[in-house]
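Provenance

Sequences were taken from public entries as deposited. Structures were produced by running a predictor on each sequence independently, with no templates supplied. The record for Amidinotransferase from Thalassovita autumnalis is shown for reference.
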Amino acid sequence: MNPQAPRAVVMVRPHAFRSNPETQGDNGFQTAGTVDAQQALAEFDAAVAKLRAAGVTVHVFDDHGDRDTPDSVFPNNWFSTHAGGHVALYPMHAENRRRERRSDVIELLKTDYRVQDVIDYSGLEQDGLSLEGTGAMVLDHLHRIAYVAQSNRADPVLLERFCTHFNYEPMAFAAADPDGLPVYHTNVMMGIGTDYALICLDMIQDPTRRAEVAARLGETREVINLTVDQVTHFAGNALELTGTSRLLALSARAWDALRSDQKAVIERSATALPLSIPTLETAGGSVRCMLAGIHLTPRERFAA
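Predicted structure for Amidinotransferase:
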């Protein structure tokens, strides 16, 4: 199993998709206003079908909207999985996002995969702390580095605690979106594949830290330096997966925003899998946010 490119993901089907007023204040990528929930559902189902056709195992859970969870389509923020059988549950910043956590997802993981322990940080929400999973942290699973854009969704004390528990080195930096606000989630400006890394270095405000991040990534991967405009089209919000071949899942809008030379770097290592989700992207996230990668060993099934 490639530690950077999982073979399976969890996705949550949104039956009552809408924008989230509780996250509009710090998510500069979100579009306010009404959306077509049926169109969002159709985009979701088409994305699932395309992932499965490419050989990715997709575990789908339904959210019928009865718990007021407008961002439930983005499950990567409330849990993550890790090689060796480890699962983490995270504290969320917005109150209505805390309701996204669900025990049936964790039970599925325990049933179908080898889970050794579940480390639950979510109780720290009561102290006003949050660390929103692989939205807040972009993880280099191969070299054990957690890249983090500093924001109110990535508490530094919790980051240190996570890195101690899961054996990652934290590499935090200040980054700003086009309006000068802190980048709310690292994974909108950055994604890491096996052989390459997508990142908008211009969003990192301190020149010294920018150079350090670029150098660290460049030690092990080819760096694809995104423009700010490409990030606004979610070009950084991508996840490498393993299906019938190594894949890069991202939105069609993101893929179209990349230059031919940038695409060539990706295509030397992975096959692009663009998914059309324009309605879902109005919530301020894209394909990577929709995919909670499963970095666990599947349980062996023996015939009776």
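The chain is about 25% helix and 25% strand.
The mean pLDDT is 94.
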